[in-house]
Amino acid sequence: xxELRKRLGLSQEELCGRLGISRPALSAIERGREQPRVGxxxxxxxxxxxxxxxxxxxxxxxxxxRRTGEPTLGVYGEIGNHTVVxxxxxxxxxxxxxxxxVSVGPRGSLARMGDPGVLVDGCDPILGFLVSxxxxxxxxxxxxxxxxxxxxxxxxxxxxxxxxxxxxxxxxIPELPNEWPTPVPLAAWELCIASKPGNPASPRSIPExxxxxxxxxxxxxxxGVRRLSDVWAAQQGVDLGPGGFASHLEAASAVRFGDFDxxxxxxxxxxxxxxxxxxxxxxxxxxxxxSESEADSRVADALxxxxxxxxxxxxxxxxxxxGAA
Length: 325
Fold this sequence. Notes:
This protein is of the alpha+beta class. The protein contains 15 helices and 12 strands.
């Protein structure tokens, strides 16, 4: 499967962005260490332009629906004139932003369990609050997938999501296609060096992150934090290499449990995991959208709510954020 993906000119990151899965999950499937559930297998085959049987072999795909006869649960949204389906993580039903509204049958058939939702991508945990608030306030389903900047923008550009959050250093504006509307500034926060209390290897400055002996938990390529990490590492003559953690929480958790000495992450994530936090830069989150997604009345209503005085006041109260724009 990896060879086919490469022949099509797709990186793992690009394919993960289209599918809404993590890079480690895709790597495990490509190496044959895990078999995808049927819903994911169908989408993988569709992205690569082959039949499921040709990609995995007859009977190779496993799923709850194959074992129990029950469908695979997921969420769906309608963007323009097409339907986008994302399978829920195995065994997961929870969180107001991931309540299923569709089921996928063993042969790829869809059974709609509710109204279509609004799909939102981005790595800032503030999206958990945002989609919960919008779902309650507007009486519609909003769904959040935690994806890095590049994957979020790729999904938006290819009509796989309605909204994409990106974060950049304070003062920078997202570079987006000219035909896209102006993105909406959401909230600012501090990027910090996070380390475990009492760890003698804890760095106290950016240069100390990249000295021999310090195990640095890098983020995945395509994320905003990885972009900064690569710049700062290069200044110290260090190449971080490929790979990395898919989210702020994954990287900070690796530090919390002692697998790494430090990472760069949001203050809120570091505080939530009991890590020491040394602020090093300001970041601002933006919500990007396309004219096609804005034409959806639900998205237009959401954008109005996000820019309302009520939302500005709520964002001012968010812990570990520096308030709204």
